[in-house]
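Fold it.
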Amino acid sequence: MNYDFNKITDRHGSNSIKTDLALARGKPEDVLSLWVADMDFPTAPAILEALHKKVDHGIFGYSCLDESFRKALADWMKTEHDFTFERRELVTTPGVVFAIVCAIKAFSKEGEAVLIQTPVYYPFKNMIEANNRKLVTNSLYEKDGKWFIDFDDFEKKIVENEVKLFILCSPHNPVSRVWTREELQKLSEICLRHNVIVFADEIHNDFVYPPNKHTVFSTLSSEVADNSIVSMSVSKTFNLAGLQFSTNFIKNPALRSKFKAEYDKTGYDEPSLMGLTAARAAYEGGKPWLEDLKKHLQANIEFIRNYLAEKLPAVRLIEPEGTFLLWLDFSALGYSDDELDDLIVNKAKVWLDRGTMFGPEGDKYQRINIATPQPLLREALDRIAGALKC
């Protein structure tokens, strides 16, 4: 089947933070929103059908996992990611950030150090600090249009700060890297050497552009599997963030017990009925929609690449290896970060995520969400091009 990802759906008035919080967040009322990482498309028909059936059933009581869901998830992970798991290793949570907080509390004490690699998804930093842990950052660096890990600094920071937990973003948001197996292996060896537990946020794992290949972190070795938690969700893949459902794989029973103990303290128990329903349907019947979506995203990447070359040559695209979030470098224009943000938001009336939200390394960068109809993407770039000529 072919799905029309260029059809524009008006999201205003739908309780969407992407469109309905503009004024509350200090943005112009008529701003074009391409910031937060959800998509401007209805989800896959197979998912909608399953949700309609659940609504027609009419009873929305407490829910539980069943074998049909576990099988659907297992088949997907084996087919898409060459990953297998035992039933006991699976722990569901209402989101990946929720799981990160459980891991922070389970594997570190107040005042102890948790490491992240900036620039990175900003809730990592927020959750570390909100839970009174010591934030330690290992800065990624850019060379010839590609971002890399400083492994020497990574190990140095671990040793100097006695880091207890490392939160890995893989594929990486916002720099769009799909870490190679060799890069992940080096990270894992350092963490094993210094007894640092790894939480691997792999929520963008279904968006990888050839020839790149995603490696599930725990597949590196049995020792790595015993020292890690791997978290992922249908929320990014199938635009289901509002249904609050994610899956975590924890092989080591001791880590799993500690993680679940913190989970239990939250008072959250049964999974979201609609989240569970949607996830099963996604894994069983969502792939045709996803394959067409990937084609649309690659067409949008090509469109942006050509547009920048023709009309905004001073704006540099960091070539994406994964995710539907592109990292744009505006530094050659000579504006300060504040000036750049003011031009884009208040002159162009486009809402992107300014790079410094992800860390100081993001100075003069902007993150744009391309999971949108191409006509909206064109309008956003036209507005930005016009504003930068003011």
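The CA atoms of residues 57 and 278 lie 15 Å apart.
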